[in-house]
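Why does residue order matter? Because the sequence determines the fold. Keep that principle in mind as you read this record.
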Amino acid sequence: MEEDSADPYLPYDGGGDTIPLHELSKKGSNYTMSNGGGGGGASSSTHLLDLLDEPIPGVGTYDDFHTIDWVREKCKDRERHRKINSKKKESAWEFTKSLYDAWSGWLVVTLTGLASGALAGLIDIAADWLNDLKEGVCLSAMWFNHEQCCWGSNETTFAERDKCPQWKTWAELILGQAEGPGSYIMNYFMFTFWALSFAFLAVSLVKVFAPYACGSGIPEIKTILSGFIIRGYLGKWTLLIKTITLVLAVASGLSLGKEGPLVHVACCCGNIFSYLFPKYNKNEAKKREVLSAASAAGVSVAFGAPIGGVLFSLEEVSYYFPLKTLWRSFFAALVAAFVLRSINPFGNSRLVLFYVEYHTPWYLFELFPFILLGVFGGLWGAFFIRANIAWCRRRKSTRFGKYPVLEVITVAAITAIIAFPNPYTRQNTSELIKELFTDCGPLESSQLCQYRSQMNGSQAYPEGSEAAATPGVYSAMWQLSLALVFKIIMTIFTFGLKVPSGLFIPSMAIGAIAGRIVGIAVEQLAYYHHDWFLFREWCEVGADCITPGLYAMVGAAACLGGVTRMTVSLVVIVFELTGGLEYIVPLMAAVMTSKWVGDAFGREGIYEAHIRLNGYPFLDAKEEFTHTTLARDVMRPGRNDPPLAVLTQDDMTLGELQTIISETSYNGFPVIVSKESQRLVGFALRRDITIAIESACRKQERIVLNSRVYFTPHAPTLPADSPRPLKLRSILDMSPFTVTDHTPMEIVVDIFRKLGLRQCLVTHNGIVLGIITKKNILEHLEELKQHVETLAPTWCYYKKRHPPSYGPDGKPGPRVHNVQLASSFSRYEEESEEEVRLLDNSSL
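Structure:
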């Protein structure tokens, strides 16, 4: 009888619970018992069990493109945990099952880390090989890329270490000559041909087999982790096609990276492995804990930064991040990094291609150019977000977006044709970042390191020291300037194409180019004006004063921070890339400056902007709600909306219930006491009602349209010839979250964010007035953004304002199912008017 006490105002009025047991046999075979059964005596009562006392398959699940109920999912998990703990002492088998349940979380993140590391290594190796295939092949071993092909050659020189007899360009294979205009044109043609082939194959596979495999995936993963359901987005087909097309897209030379999509790949692995464990398969909230750990593993293998991956998951993508998820994320990132290190895809015993180490200190006066790079990163981020969103919006609204294959081919052709003449745009973007990050030394043959008398370092700035740049360095700076403009333009049009496209690497490349240019400029300034007090005070004799590679690293972090608005995780990721704790302060200064400058033009990062562009139901916890609206201003029904659809607890027929479901599209319905009393009983979801009715019609006889539907613990009193009633008590949420109509929306929004609610009922003195859903809040926030006029003072919201369920005259309006507002509403109206007068007097 615990359910009775949980509902203090359920009117039974001679309901089934008042019938003495000795009278049951007299009621006839058609009489419905209070527990949902009935029968013609004790012999027939055994088969008249309440169907809904047992779990119904499908109840508690969610449709595609719906939001999960975090509170209900957590309650289900606690109930499952209590059940396991209560049974573990019964037998050794139950104890073993409890141990398996306890360790299943660690097992699933271990499998996710293993799969993520293995797939990342495979993608790195395949992308490098296909990228070098655009320039030539290795005759001795076709599976070797350019660098691996020349490892064992004894005929390479220091100046031309990338040339060896085993590696043949396409001009050498086709025309038989390595130099000359014909050779250049042939290599140009083959470079463009392979780029277009890879791009066409990538977009075709995505379009035909897995449309969800396009893009970065991080905006959708953020939305999924917030509780949204997107069926198939993390499925096996998406994983397979994303892995293949990511290799092809990177090899095509488009201005994109593989680091962002690696997070999507890792989350696909986590989602697939979670189906092997009932603890995560049957609970959407628990599954999202695995996805949070998987996103950490994805960043770990993308940048070789396990700690940065955990912080990225915590700061950027996760919506619900308990302490045990932090531990499991760290473990998943560790396992993924270990597997990738074991594969060693780049042959340098590092997890990324552009790992660098600096051994020279930075000086205090360098904070000024570092902050300037932060300003550039913030401006670039704000410009890129606006330009890319404008282009993506235009793509959605024009015919050009209907031909994704043509768009990808066009962008790939323009990229390949413009990129080939410039060596800094022709090479792989990761290799470009590596060259820009690397400090110049005796073993570097890059054009950026062509200084006079490199081996002479005995004095601070003697004539002919390594700080004196040659024309080769200035030529490289011009080429880098052109590459900077090219990367900025092409990245705007590339991000959002229907191929896997990450944003981390292009943003880092833009920042690294700008940083290297600034670094060389400061270096030459220090050389030609070494008697300035800044350089004379800080630059020591016999030491390198300026490290241009450090400026490239700081610029890369600043630009990536300007686009994504990451702070702590970004600094840690770059710190793990460099392996130097000494450069934390420059990185922090540049990243924070970048965020401040970017926030001055808009607080949204690129992922939040794409979430809003795609219309995903995502409540960003970073946004502050500063308006003075109330729950009654946002709830539905509005003033001109249809009346609120409600269900009564025990006086509806199955036909009336099906009519309400068929004539409305709401995802749930408040359940009230009766037509006369509007007091709230609970909330029933549309999907659960539909599944319960279908299950009852299959398994129970004599369920017809005239059958009484009830949500109470016991059946109501029915005539003897009435059809069998249908009990839906088990699908009723007895504790729906409610707020009063006077609750400020600031509090309502905070509740939705922190509890992950799907909907919230609005009441007044226990009487249902309306409902607020996550969609209503998002629409309200969008309306407030579009209206720049200031809102009226709070008291104005009370004056001559009636709830949406009132009519224009302030009197109750009709409801669905002929439910009228109770007489207590007139008292509420008088109280509201009295409150208006009090507020008006107080405002004077």
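Residues 395 and 403 are 10 Å apart (CA to CA).
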